[in-house]
């Protein structure tokens, strides 16, 4: 189970530009300086768990994040496990779920006619790591007169 306050805090994992993912966290408030955390993840329930290969470290050399490339998620959930080691304490184990930061819509096209004072706007949905249904997206358009 681990000691209270040793688990990581403020865990955030963000996919951006479709295939890159950064995960970051804060060291637990009662974790000692020799505490080391390890991040494991799997993109879906059917895939194997793998450990982070590119850790982000703080000034003490502790892992406080991870950078991933070529991320592919086949469904809406990915699974994370962060555990750790310390010579003084058992480290609390925690697990988490992923979030994706979407890119803007693609190929935005605007066609305005001066006579009718109307504009038509077309676009393609943003690229994502896993959402295939175009009906999942809602858009907001801000029009500024120039």
TrEMBL record:
Keywords: Glycoprotein, Membrane, Receptor, Signal, Transmembrane, Transmembrane helix. Pfam families: IL6Ra-bind. One of its GO terms (cellular component) is external side of plasma membrane. Its main location: membrane. It is a single-pass type I membrane protein. SUPFAM superfamilies: Fibronectin type III. One of its GO terms (molecular function) is cytokine receptor activity. The keyword Zinc-finger does not apply. It comes from the Eukaryota. Residues 11-97 form the Type I cytokine receptor cytokine-binding domain. It is found in: Membrane. This is CSF2R factor. The gene is Csf2ra_0.
